[in-house]
Amino acid sequence: MFSNTLKEETQQNHVDLEKKIVPRIKAIQSEQDYITLLKLFYSYFGALETLVQSVLDTSLLPDSTSRRKSEAILNDIRALGGDTPNLAGVADLPEISDHAAALGAMYVMEGSTLGGQIISKMIAKALPGKTNDALSFYKGYGENTMPMWIAFKNAMNEHAVTADIQKKVINAANETFLKFSQWVDKAG
């Protein structure tokens, strides 16, 4: 199954990004720390979603609008009294020029919903009672997180049937991980 190959081909870049994000999560001690983390995600995912939506073939992924993450992140920021951050520029994003590349970028964003289940518990523990209304991004799709993940992987597997398409998806996913990692570095 292609999704297994994609996981293997992107594993190192995924792990490298996690090594930068997890310490930031563990360091959260205040609402401001959490807002800073949310802004980091919003500025990257918000710009990436706009780029992805410009080339995504929604007939091949009809539930794509319900998969947008930036609105949930922005709602969490606002629930904590934070302001809207600027979005990443085109130079900070992966090259997404067609549906296959869009799927590669979405693989990274959709995968974040799986880790978000753990992250939401970590944040709730670090800031008990303070973030109840500001965990929608990390809670993902709630009880539907796994079914949504499986549906996304199935749609991707159905589309990525040729070596050329698979290569585009893999390259875009790797570039998305790398560019997000660079974005984290840029944020300091």
Automatic annotation (TrEMBL):
Membrane-spanning ranges: none
Listed GO MF terms: heme oxygenase (decyclizing) activity
SUPFAM superfamilies in UniProt: Heme oxygenase-like (SSF48613)
Protein name in the entry: Heme oxygenase
InterPro entries recorded: Haem_Oase-like, Haem_Oase-like_multi-hlx
Gene Ontology BP terms: heme oxidation
Residues spanning the signal sequence: none
Pfam families recorded: Heme_oxygenase
